[in-house]
Description:
Elements: H1 8-23, E1 33-39, E2 44-51, E3 62-65, H2 68-85, E4 92-98, H3 105-108, H4 123-141, E5 151-156, H5 158-169, E6 176-180, H6 186-199, E7 208-214, H7 219-234, E8 241-247, H8 256-267
Parallel strand pairs: 3-4, 3-5, 5-6, 6-7, 7-8
Antiparallel strand pairs: 1-2, 2-4
Helix pairs in contact: 2-8, 5-6
Amino acid sequence: MPPFPNPRCPLALGLALVAVLTLAGCGPTTAQESEPFHSTLLERDFILHSYVPAEHGGELPVVLVLDGNSMFDPVVEALEQGLARGELEPAVVIGIAYAGSQNARNTDFTPVPDDRIPDSGGASQYFDFVEQELLPHLESRFPISRSKEDRALFGHSFGGLAGAYALFERPELFGRYGLASPSLWYGDGITYSWEETRAAGSREWPVTIWMSTGAWEGAEMAGGFEFLDTKLRSRNYTGLRYESALIPAQGHLGSFTESLQRATEFVLKKEEQP
């Protein structure tokens, strides 16, 4: 496990992002539809922003985007541009946003409690909500596939950490991931122990992963990214489709637009015909 000598810097970035995302309540400009959704399991209210491509046939992949008020638009814009070029497969995009002034990302996106983060450690319950309440609702409302191979999860910062948790600890839910600036420092680098457990098991791992971080994000963020990136590239998993990038000249908040757009282009890229 890599050293994490000074977690205060990424912690401050994470708390700053909470403030930015809380203020970003104006909502996306390209949403086809927005609807309220109440979780009985979490006793929390959400707003679901949805995008369905104009022309499609049959069941489509679905991309769930955490922090939906801020992160939904870059994904939709990249998808629409890729569809226009004929390079991406059509997909439904769902932005999961907290309703009103609610913002429980410190709880929902963190896998274990941390004394520095109030009310942290609720990721397990959050993904129970995703599995038991959210996905059944989406499958009843939208023309989406029920196969995990056709489900993608995108998140930034703590949202990227939540994506890493789902990747290793709830692998039955998703087959594609966009991890933008994941907070891998969290929990003394608990993500690396998950990866070690994964590596000790089957070499067969049919999953698609995009991971990125900003080049100016600081030593803890960059170091964590590089450590996990090196591990994933060295394992020689069978079936793993993986790509990563350092977003040049960008810090934590400045990198998410390009990160999510490139994740969309990678995760939804059409398979080349033989």
